[in-house]
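Section 3.1: Structural characterization of target chains.
Under the original work plan, the team committed to producing a structural model for every single-chain target entering the pipeline before any wet-lab resources were allocated. The record below documents one such target. The sequence was received from the expression subgroup and is listed exactly as submitted; it comprises 71 residues.
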Amino acid sequence: MARKGWRLTETEVRKIVHLLSETDMVVGDIAERMGCSKTAVISINRRFQIRDYARHRSTWKHPVGGANKTL
């Protein structure tokens, strides 16, 4: 369950960054695993520019690696 109104710890943010960059997990699954909202995961993704969705919800690429991921 998401913790409404709580800040994520630095450790939690690092874990989310890791999951976004190193796995094929979708945002909803990461949010559920970390106990936060999808919006929080999306905000972290935007801040650290990990996945570039290019206006598509199910396809992304990692800006550094350039490899496309499709679900």
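The longest helix spans residues 10-22.
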